[in-house]
Write a structure and sequence with these properties.
The protein is an alpha+beta fold. The strands form 6 sheets. Strands 6-1-5-16-19-20 form a 6-stranded mixed beta sheet. Strands 7, 8, 9, 10, 11 and 14 form a 6-stranded antiparallel beta sheet that branches. It has helices spanning about 10-35, 100-105, 115-120, 125-150, 190-200, 265-275, 305-310, 325-330, 345-355; strands at about 40-50, 55-60, 60-65, 65-70, 80-90, 110-115, 155-165, 180-185, 185, 205-215, 215-220, 225, 235, 240-245, 250, 285, 290, 295-300, 315-320, 335-340. The longest helix is centred in the first third of the chain and has 28 residues, at about 10-35. The relative contact order is 0.16. The radius of gyration is 27 Å and the shape is globular. It folds into 2 domains: about 45-120 and about 125-155 and about 250-360, Ribosomal Protein S5, domain 2 (2-Layer Sandwich), CATH 3.30.230; about 155-245, Pdz3 Domain.
């Protein structure tokens, strides 16, 4: 027996399929839109802008030299020395949406970080910003000191307590304005040397810190404890400003950038401006790294983002702290040559070798 349909069912099937497809598309779009508004417990690091330490920047409505040196002759350069930055999307008070986080996970130029890692509990957002601003100020001072030391220009220095962090080991013990003279009987000359002394002391035995307070020396006892966050190190919970007496004036105009990682490029910019010879020779050279008054270049965070930011802004060479080589390997963008450096002298030799076409160091394995 045969059964016959009075109508062709294909049109009905197609209409139902189209309706189901539109419903699924609408449902998916609603989920995506909903996720974009739902906060995720992460922050996202992205390549940030670069700044030419030999050029100018906008401060308000005014255009200013990024590094302005008064009291010494300065010279023009044909190239660029770019300091690199990382832009962070989100903070504990304004978290990104899940859609942004998903995009960050699949984008190799971005990094998604748990918010509690990026902003350790117990430290307010304002304290984080203040600490980053002080680190930037210290970085500038250390860079000037390192540059002048390279140029053979003498200066004097001392360190002043800016703030003892709330609930930290130094709260109520060290006071704003205290000038740090010694730690465990050894003279303290730089912020980096104080950090090393605290690390060497550890968290078992109290440290004896000698400060000048209201014109008189005072000894205090402080027991360091481990810091929060990814890189846990002994700390005494203070913000310190390295204060130097320089025989010339160096003003660095850079707003809305914090942290210590621009130190190397500040130092190179100062040296280039105060050197008759053109060290950059028309090249666009970017870089990053902390620096101390002795010219030691230290590792930083976010170097993968900084390499992409450098390439985006026309750099072909990138000076990286040698201790960041493990973070660099396998992540160097095409078109960028990375040169590891351990000291300011290494960086200057690299600039000279770039022009001369000499052999340059590379991270092992690159």
């Amino acid at each position: 027996m045969a059964i016959y349909e009075t109508e062709d069912p294909s049109d009905q099937v197609q209409r139902r399929s189209r309706l189901a497809g539109w419903l699924m598309l609408t449902f998916t779009a609603a989920i995506i839109i909903g996720l974009s508004f739902f906060p995720a417990p992460y922050v996202i690091d992205n390549p940030g802008p670069t700044y030419n330490t030999l050029g100018s920047v906008s401060v308000g409505e005014e255009e200013m030299e990024l590094i302005l040196i008064s009291g010494e002759d300065t010279y023009e350069s044909t190239g660029s020395l770019l300091l690199t930055t990382v832009t962070r999307s989100g903070n504990p008070e304004s978290l990104p949406g899940w859609l942004d986080v998903f995009q960050g996970w699949v984008d190799p130029t971005r990094t998604v970080i748990p918010v509690d890692v990026a902003y350790p509990p117990g430290i307010s957002l304002e304290q984080n910003r203040e600490a980053a601003a002080i680190e930037m100020e210290n970085s500038q001072q250390e860079a000037v000191a390192a540059a002048l030391d390279h140029l053979g220009i003498a200066y004097t220095s001392h360190m002043v307590v800016s703030q003892a962090l709330e609930d930290g080991p130094s709260e109520g013990v060290l006071l704003p304005g205290d000038v740090i003279l010694q730690a465990n009987g050894m003279s303290v000359e730089t912020v980096s040397s104080l950090r090393q002394m605290i690390a060497d002391s550890g968290v078992v035995t109290p440290m004896t810190i000698t400060v000048e307070r209201e014109g008189s020396p005072v000894d205090v006892q402080i027991l360091p404890r481990m810091s929060e966050g990814q890189e846990r190190v002994p700390m005494i919970g203070i913000l310190v400003s390295g204060t130097y007496d320089f025989p010339l004036e160096v003003d660095i105009a850079l707003e809305n950038v914090g942290g210590p990682s621009a130190g190397l490029m500040f130092a190179l910019g100062i040296i280039e401006k105060m050197t008759v010879e053109d060290l950059t020779k028309g090249q666009v050279i970017a870089g990053t790294g902390t620096i101390d008054a002795q010219g030691t270049v230290g590792p930083i965070g976010g170097i993968r983002h900084k390499m992409h930011g450098a390439l985006n802004d026309g750099a072909t060479w990138f000076l990286a702290p040698v201790d960041n080589c493990p973070d660099v390997l396998g992540h160097i963008p095409d078109g960028l040559e990375v040169i590891p450096v351990a000291t300011l002298e290494d960086a200057i030799e690299a600039l000279e070798s770039i022009h001369a076409g000499g052999e340059l160091p590379r991270c092992a394995g690159s």
